[in-house]
Amino acid sequence: MRLAPPTSLVPHVAAAATALLAATAAAAATPASPTAATVHTLPNGLTVVIEEQHRTDQVALFLRYGVGSRDEGVGEHGCAHLFEHLMFEGSANVPTNMFDTWLTAGGGDNNAYTSEDETVYHMTFPSGALDLALFLESDRMGFLDAGLDAANLANQQKVVLQERRQGYAEPHGRDSDVVSRVLYPEGHPYHVPVIGTVADVEGFSLDGVLDFWQRHYRPRNAVLVLVGNVDTDAALASVTRWFADVPDPGPAVARVDGPTPPAVPADALVIDEVDDRSVTLAWRTVPLGHPDEPALDVLSYVLDNGRGTRLADALYYKHPLASAFGVWSGMSAIDGTFQVDVTSAGPPLPRLVKVIDATLARVVRKPPSQEEVDRARKALLAGIEDTLETPEGRAGLLLYCHDTYGDPNCLGPELARYEAVTPADVARVAGTWLAPEARVTLSVVADGDGGSLPGAAPVELP
């Protein structure tokens, strides 16, 4: 699976992990998992996944909460992302801004991301800082309300709104959110951008955000992953010691899973400060774990993987119609996207779309050869060994596996799924999911440039 374009709001670990799974599948002769994690559940419901890796002294900690933008109600759009900021503002025993200061002093670093489906906090640190890291995470999971005040909230509201303004002001900075907004129509859980709406972010109250935290930031809605230079029993004892007093308010709040509104074909337009014209074609596909996921991943590489692949040749190597292009397949928990992005080297955008349509039709009419499929699978190997070598890479993979399949060591079945993809499968998914009448398009042109696709209408982000 390809990662989302650089203009997307946040990196999606599920997408990266799926790429890892796909690539590993191509290399494996037998479906044996290269991971050996154990799973534990604390009395308060927190799930703990631990894998020992003693190659270095580093430890990676990933803490996933099952809350993303799809879980936001009326007036809450952007609240899940806001917590990326609020969770660093202090808790009962950690003063404002001291989370980063103390972790850095212990030799660690950290970050976080939010998607439609999840919020993940992750850090790496020397093994000697394990207790410090667990203390910091447990304090904000259980006792954030004691450290969060109106001043901190107001400050982070300003930060988020500035982040939004700066991101959208960049060339192509709105593209990803506009595509999602038209691809996932009103009523779909993915319709509103992860960063939220200006009106909602400005309107957040302290009581409202604390209510959001109490509903979603609870042990039974979280998975803690530890990978690195730890002893499993000792690490579990440390996790238990630090998280034992985090209250258990009960099960996670029920999530919005569907049904989802059907796709509505649309041609969108963004007027931007750009020097060229570009067009995006996007289709709704399948969620994570769907039987067609592996074939769609392979298809993306059959189309775009250097000279000799179908769309790369049609747009660049044999016919220099594009100055830049990319194909990616991205799945999330309840839906998926297949996307083609092309920047014109001069030809009008309708001509580029015609070439893309013809190339996809030929994939259906003339399935790729076994050699093409094998080459695509081989391409998915890029970077995999390095990913498995690092504690943070392994932790992200274990988290993806547990989230998607309930088993952190899910590579075995995944290997078989990707190994089983045939040329006929690739042609079938192209015909099933990538029909011209099922797609949305986005034209991005400069102000005064009339070169968008015919009928393309401007889309404003709330």
Provide structural commentary.
This protein has two domains: about 35-245, Metalloenzyme, LuxS/M16 peptidase-like (Cytochrome Bc1 Complex, Chain A, domain 1, 2-Layer Sandwich); about 265-400 and about 420-460, 2-Layer Sandwich (Cytochrome Bc1 Complex, Chain A, domain 1). The chain has helices at about 15-25, 80-85, 100-105, 130-145, 150-170, 175-185, 200-205, 205-215, 230-245, 295-305, 310-315, 350-365, 370-380, 385-390, 390-405, 410-420, 425-435; strands at about 40, 45-50, 60-65, 110-115, 120-125, 220-230, 265-270, 280-285, 320-330, 335-345, 440-445, 455-460. α1 crosses α15 (about 390-405) and α10 (about 295-305) crosses α17 (about 425-435). The radius of gyration is 23 Å and the shape is globular. The protein has a six-stranded mixed beta sheet, with helices on both faces. The chain is an alpha+beta fold and about 450 residues long. The chain has 17 helices and twelve strands. The longest helix has 20 residues, at about 150-170. The two termini are about 30 Å apart.
Summarize the structure.
The chain has 462 residues and is an alpha+beta fold.
Secondary-structure class? alpha+beta
User: How are the strands of the biggest sheet laid out side by side?
Assistant: 1-2-6-3-5-4
State the end-to-end distance: 30 Å
The number of helical elements comes to 17
- SS strand fraction: 15-25%
